[in-house]
Amino acid sequence: MTDGFIKAAAGVPEIALGNPAVNADRMIAMLRDMHAQGVKIAVFTELGITGYTLEDLFLQQALLDAAETALRRVVAATADMDTLVIVGVPVPWDGALYNCAAVINRGRLIGLVPKTHIPTYAEFYEGRRFSPAPRQETVIRYLGQTISLGQGYFRCAELPELVVGVEICEDAWVPFPPSVHLALAGANVICNLSCSNEVIGKAAYRRELVRHLSASQVGAYVYSSAGGGESTTDLVFSGHGMIAENGAMLAEQRWSTGTFITADIDVQKLNADRRRMSTFVSSVSEEYPLLAHFHLDITETKLTRTFPKAPFVPSSRDHLEERCREIIHIQSAGLQQRLKGSHSDHAVIGLSGGLDSTLAYLVTVDAFRQLHYPMENIIALTMPCFGTTSRTKSNAQKMAEALGTSFREVDIHDAVQQHFRDIGHDGVTTDVTYENSQARMRTLILMNTANLHGGLVIGTGDLSELALGWATYNGDHMSMYGVNAGVPKTLVRYLVDYFASVSPEPLRSVLYDVLDTPVSPELLPPEENGEIAQRTEDLVGPYELHDFFLYYFLRCGFSPRKIYRLACLTFDGDYSPETIHKWLQTFLRRFVTQQFKRSCLPDGPKVGSVAVSPRGDWRMPSDAGSYLATLQDF
Q1: Are residues 271 and 356 in the same domain?
Q2: What is the pLDDT of residue 287?
Q3: Which residues of 199-213 are buried (b: 16+ CB within 10 A; e: fewer)?
Q4: 52 and 140 share a domain?
Q5: Residue 46 and residue 144 in one domain
Q6: Catalytic residue list contains 326
């Protein structure tokens, strides 16, 4: 439970129809297996103590008495289990019969939540036997104790950020389900006990329903539907179990009985998402109140959940290609509007032959094609200086030739040397002035060339560089429109790869060579063999780590300690914990201290859920360096 991770389970025991004693035995056995795996929330099926398809047998007192006796055994069996357990049981009271979820914790029944919406249509005829939940919380006697019967939520005493709500089957299918009220009252984990039969297409609809509920409520949804053992007189049940989190399906099973699925829910992340969304307004509800506190030990969840190494990149190849097309369309559409809005039909770009400038150049070409502007109006400038290698310079020229754009070479060696003499630099010491003078000289040439032709300078810097401040202030940091500003480095690589895959020769080979070239600003003289001497990732750290850090720091608001834990788990075997610690420290230091560069960023399109524009997603003071002290405890 540390770091907000809660292991939840959806269990589907085989039902012994009308035999509560056997059903209790099977639940208890499954609960012991769940507890051994560290499950903290265990959800079983609708009316699982008796079975759902008993029809008018629910009106028999003998069955109701046996169900109460069986539930008492399940409650007693949880006394030594550190788990919140939710099982389905029929509960009679004051001449009515309720289809209930019994909420159990450490040997105590702490609440009974009745089904609110009783279906009486098509194959369902529950209204013949069951009453809907009373409008207000009712106190009844059951299992020899006084207990609340009604809708409401349950909060963990030891981890108050964990709040659990319950709804039953049909409740999820109505226009305004109880889970909406529960989520607004603070519940971030909704448990649904169900007995949903199978017909063609229903499983897909049910899956999308669960995903949608978890997304719209910015919560987790644990769904357990009955399977084997239920009557097949007219219906068939598949044992559909699902665990979703904010629109993502974490675990799922169908056509499997006597088993359970588990997933690690991150309630800390869910609460962070809710805090970020100003339209998600929690409220105290008298209709859906706190029913009880439950207790769980604060232990470290042994994570079985995996985290993608590249959270900005889809794992599926099909989805990746679709995502690439969409991102390129967003970048291109943004640039098209800026060109039209500024009444400009020229673009100027510093084409170094590196990864970022290649993507920006390709996006610019796409924008010009869509606008039917002449390709020669794209002016690609290569500006060789002390660190330029023949490989990158050659690739830049080959790209321009393949795509029919203008290409110019402006050698800046003499101009930079003159600048060194002007400011009193010896021209030999390879310090920050040595490097930044080159970057600023290139920007001067780009800006003035754009003025000369009435065009726009297209920025090439990507999201990862902006997060790290890996740009020369008023050098490559500046442009008239930054098409890559919302694209992290790991995704830049996939976008260029996508362009290569759909391009003819010779452009394809050039793009693949760009992908194979080490990432470098090329500001220091090359090695004796002509190879790049200055490799960015040797200096600032691997971009796959920084993009991982960036996603969980900015998108999720995780603490450095939690990010470090997830990174060690995800990159086990790739990087040592010491290496991850080192580069996470670098990321935090640079992110906090380099805000002054982000505070005056040029315009550029947002393409994903993470962005650092000071006009939109990320605003912070440029002089918040002391905040670093709060980030060092990991």
Answers
A1: no
A2: 75
A3: eeeebeebbebbbeb
A4: yes
A5: yes
A6: no
